[in-house]
Design goal:
homodimer; alpha/beta; Ubiquitin-like (UB roll); 5 domains; 6-stranded mixed beta sheet; 29 strands
Amino acid sequence: MAHKVKFPQYKKEVEVADNSDLLSAVIKAGIEIRATCAGQGTCGACKVQVLSGPEGYFASPSPWISKDEKKAGYVLACQTAVLGDLTVEIPQDTKLEKIQAVGADREDFEDTENIPGTTGQPEKTSFTCQPLARKIYINIPEPTLKDTTPDFERLERELSAKTGISDFNINLPLLRALSRFIRQSNWEVTAGIAEFNSDFEIIQLEAGNTSKNAYGLALDIGTTTVVVHLIDLNTGQITASKGTYNLQMSFGEDVITRIMYAQEKDGLEKLTKAIHDTVNSLIHAVVSENKIFNHDILCIQASGNTSMTHLFLGINPEYIRKEPYIPSVNLPTTVYACELGIKINPKGIISCVPGVASYVGGDITAGVLACGMQDSAETSLLIDLGTNGEIALGNSDWIVSAACSAGPAFEGVGIKSGTRAVDGAIQEIEISADKKQVKYETINNKKPRGICGTGLIDIPAELLRKGIITRDGKFNGEKVSPRIRRNEDGELEFVVVYAPETQSGKDIVITESDIANIIRSKGAIFLGIQVLLQEMGLKFENIGKIYISGGFGTYLDVEKAIMIGLLPDLPRNSFQFIGNSSLTGAKICLLSKQAREKAKETAGKMTYIELSVNPKFMNEYTSTLFLPHTDINLFPSVKNQLK
Amino acid sequence: MAHKVKFPQYKKEVEVADNSDLLSAVIKAGIEIRATCAGQGTCGACKVQVLSGPEGYFASPSPWISKDEKKAGYVLACQTAVLGDLTVEIPQDTKLEKIQAVGADREDFEDTENIPGTTGQPEKTSFTCQPLARKIYINIPEPTLKDTTPDFERLERELSAKTGISDFNINLPLLRALSRFIRQSNWEVTAGIAEFNSDFEIIQLEAGNTSKNAYGLALDIGTTTVVVHLIDLNTGQITASKGTYNLQMSFGEDVITRIMYAQEKDGLEKLTKAIHDTVNSLIHAVVSENKIFNHDILCIQASGNTSMTHLFLGINPEYIRKEPYIPSVNLPTTVYACELGIKINPKGIISCVPGVASYVGGDITAGVLACGMQDSAETSLLIDLGTNGEIALGNSDWIVSAACSAGPAFEGVGIKSGTRAVDGAIQEIEISADKKQVKYETINNKKPRGICGTGLIDIPAELLRKGIITRDGKFNGEKVSPRIRRNEDGELEFVVVYAPETQSGKDIVITESDIANIIRSKGAIFLGIQVLLQEMGLKFENIGKIYISGGFGTYLDVEKAIMIGLLPDLPRNSFQFIGNSSLTGAKICLLSKQAREKAKETAGKMTYIELSVNPKFMNEYTSTLFLPHTDINLFPSVKNQLK
């Protein structure tokens, strides 16, 4: 027996089997909602409201649903069995917002490498342009009795003359079609050629000169967001950019939850389909908005962390999670788009930037390439502030890297009023001298809906500077500000924005546990940097440049980040924000063979330090759980301010 | 409306649509018959007998069916429409005999390179062994926290250590399965690796050590016969050999007829399926007789003329036939067995020996490699006596080649009593001094059924030596032997064997037009040799070695071949028979990477001379239409004998 589930907000209706869970119905309807714990009922993110009365469903009791909510029909979708026809409303907080490619709202990615507000440009290595694929127009001399070179070798001869590449592979169907095709085209054809692993392959032939219509995609597969650049392979220019949520979000917000989900029945297939659907929706968007044809996209250079790369290729990531944490592959084989069902030219190729280890993936290799660290004599530090907090330290001789297990706090996850960097997210606050008033700034100046990563650095710094919290992250007593109160859990919290001003009509607060959470995250990253320095026998002052990447970094206030001890207390002009360096690195690799070779070489020479088994990391962790640090002498400028 | 057609000899019955042609019914039943002209009604080869009365069919009148035959129900299958249920008998002469891989009946291919009766071994170049594919057993060190190399790179590392090959490709499905598989196999696996174009690919993984079960096939795709060696890739030894007719024979006996057939609706598909069916039947035979598994055959090195190679790969050969005679490809891409439906390991690879031009194919490159001509300072000549008569002349500095358009006379085609080298084929005759008696030898001493290639050289030579014919190939009057008579066409013919002694109960004869036909064939080859010599400014005495290949060559009497002017009058120890050199060359390439590279290099440096537009070939052709030649001084030893 099947039931109908209606979603009037979306004008959608789906049929599901009796006793299915409601989350599956939501997913089936193609509605993107939050489901952080992948259906385990533990995160409370998938809260929805059943409008049609309690007779059509059974909801397991949940600590996330208050009595009043229960009466109003609120349920966790993943904990609710569908027993009859239902009408369901998705609350604002539960929805995954559109866009969300961090930074996309501001820059539209026209100029990702030149993020405004950065203190300078990364030292760019200059790479020669030889894209992953391109189109070559050739006018082939017709054969004669004196020149009987076969059709394929004749085509190859002309292509070699134009490209300097001596040997081309060709797939059998194209070889079969070749002779008639080039004659029907009067010996004027455009060949699509692509670099497949270390070879070159003719992937397409078109009649006449179509060489101007040749596109590639640089693709950043983030755990949370997925972003593409559509790039004109003739000019190397970005034609369009798009970002969206990774549809895998419905199966868990963090990498580990997804790896575990992949072990369930059809879990891997669903996760792989979700990322393919995500990428295809982005491709659909750029293709239709720019009026180009899918088959004119000849290649994709993808970049992502190791788990995302595995799931994108349909490779089970299970051993990434199990000690000793082994990926299936660091440098995956090139694949054809049709092997993954990615809707570009079916014989278009997909290459992934090589990774280093289970928790330092191709996104970090791409980041290193984007900042040029591997070509500089000076030692630099790259900090990628994503879910995990990966760091790389090095120069042209060596690079060491680590994943800091920083957790997703800076993405707003696990924070009571946390949110992603969406419209209305609080990025910055200022507390009045009397500690009664709060001025805040939100993304796009929309009504506040929560605190995003930049705000989560800013708020503790401001609270500390104003003496509202102490260096251990605790409130300096309840009386110091009228905004401090004890909440229903008996915990102290600071009200940033009162309910009447907010989108949800609820107070936006920061709790003591939120601050503890942020301290743990910043501590993990700071300690990771210390461990890498120690491994190499270096000190902070040996670092010439600090590159900060991640969409997060775009709006980061260095002063505040140093104040909470996230970043080391170094000259402010050492810091440089490089935006989405995974995407930038992917774009560089898409356009330059030299860069692709450099990426392989760099990934090969990067040493991975497993922090979870590093004694210093284990022993000194607690010393980082202060603002900015137990040893305040590590932060002389903060020490001055707090005097 | 459908009709049933029964073939009681084969216990087969098929249903065909009303008004279908009977040849299609025969093919549908899987019965192999001769159909030289591919259904045009011109060759008379597909003669069958309808046993069930004239009411069920309509046969177009044919010069090949006598009145008596018509009464007895004889029809040309291709010219007969099926109008009712039929019972059909296939006469002995119409059948394609089993085996027929020339030489297979004698040697069972145990030792193709050492054909008995040859005057010595070819000067073999020694090639280092590195087969096209092989199996490597590896015991992979398990990963630890100190050695976190990913699974694929770990596998690659061990394979590199064992093979010296640094990079391996892997297909996506295998990469997806890799991590679980190697753990389930307790880190002990056998990898099947193959050379795919210029790369190496892991095509298979098996648990434990299965490395001893690794086979490859050397495959000679002849226009008429197809032969395989099953080769143990560990030892390089031939495990088994099989030959059979090319099932394409039902669509025409010669290459040109088949190319034309390929232009008809579904023609290419049928021809390609026919050769695939042929190869699969050979594989089935060697696999079942030797109790091995299809998936343990990892690779095929195929060799054939350019048209056969095209059809095997499903490439339309149409421009091979049209001036300026252009193949689609000389060096085809490596393909997976599954792309062609060839029943070895589906990811097993198929590589074809590269060809030189439309009428000098990979079989000739293989032949050059087999005789070692390309590595010898001395100039040698290779004569491949197949349907076309291809020749190559050269040394380590240069090689020139040509196709002589000799026609299929030496294959018994177009000769009144001609047959292939099957049981009962006459190979040799001796005529008594009184010219009344004929002693003959047949293959396997079976009752004579016709004259095969060796006999067609032997008989004119013997007739000439005994003065029964003159040097212009005409009978020396009707009275010179009682065996000379004028046949129903008013033509003179010599009875080799009278009806009572023959298989068919009909006289076996050689007619004046048969002799003219043979003279044209031998003349084309001899003149081809002259043209190549002239192109290089050389004379016959500059040729150090003459290698004769083709199944035909196995029993060839050099004395007689010189007598009729097929071979030049050179010291008898210059001649060497090298058997099926296409197959031998394929085997060498299967086993040695060095040989495969040499084959590419050799094919690349071989110059093709198009005889059909060569002035000498056009002008001097008539001078070759004598026995042995108009200018008998070119044949001093024959001049002596004929004195």
